[in-house]
Amino acid sequence: MSGQRKVAIVTGVGAGIGRSTALGLAREGFDVVLAARTAAYLDEVAAEVVAIGVDALAVPTDTGDVVQCRALVEAAVARFGRVDVIVSGAAKGTPNHTIMNSDLADWQMAWQVNVLGPLEIARTAIPYMQAVGGGSIVMVSTLAVRAINPGQGAYAATKGALTIAAQTLAKEVGPDGIRVNIVLPGFTPGASTEPMFARMAERSGTSPEAAKQKMADQTALRRLPTPDDLADAIVFLTSDRARSITGQTLDVNCGQWMA
Predict the structure, then answer these.
(1) Is 155 among the catalytic positions?
(2) How many CB atoms lie within 10 A of CB 8?
(3) pLDDT band for position 102 (50/70/90)?
(4) Residues 19, 22, 27, 31, Cα dihedral to 10°
(5) What is the pLDDT of residues 179-206, one digit of tens each?
(6) Taking 60 as the threshold, does the pLDDT of residue 255 lie above it?
(7) Which of 66, 190, 191, 259 is the 20 to 30 A CA-CA neighbour of 3?
(8) Would you tell me which CATH number, out of the four given (1.10.3210.10, 3.30.70.20, 3.40.50.720, 1.10.10.10), belongs to the domain 7-188+226-251?
(9) What whole-number distance in Å separates Cα of residue 89 and Cα of residue 138?
(10) Angle at 185 between CA 180 and CA 190, to 5 degrees
(11) Of these residues, 155, 189, 227, 231, which one is catalytic?
């Protein structure tokens, strides 16, 4: 147990934004608690975190299970004695079906992972944040709540609900010095977006790389955001440099959408 460093919990530690965020927080001096369903990958990222010079704890977690969400926070406290930051990046995608053709069971599963999981982690951690005089929570949303497209209703609706819940929570825990913000990634190349680019390529008769370039050409900066771009924004919101920012949504999409 370090006993000195602040502690961050990061969920959704996959090959993209989650990993970059965990490493970014480690570089800022946080001990990092890593959560995802795949234990082997968590161990790889934990080793990278430790190589930076801080401590890491890998906790395989299905954020669709509220019991596991609570256990994640309790494991962090048992190991490090505190929680200062939560980054909720775990997400459940849904089939690309219209609302009329959807199975509402898909909506229910997405609701469990994308809304109830992050809120249960926050609810469990907030008393520990109160005990240390404050903290920061960042919920990772999606550009799909800005650019509404057919077939994305279930995923976008859950992330839209998460945004409102996060803003409400920001009002409720602000007096305790706890900030709650939302980051909306643009279409960030990585494992989670590869199926989308593959579908775009199939529809247009091109390659996934061509589909990515076409989307990049639609942004103001003529490129797509990287996982490190998103991590930098998330780490900023957790830092004292963002001490007066709460209840806000920060779009990181290279100017593809301007709210």
Answers:
(1) yes
(2) 31
(3) confident
(4) -150
(5) 999 999 988 877 767 777 777 778 888 8
(6) yes
(7) 66
(8) 3.40.50.720
(9) 8
(10) 130
(11) 155
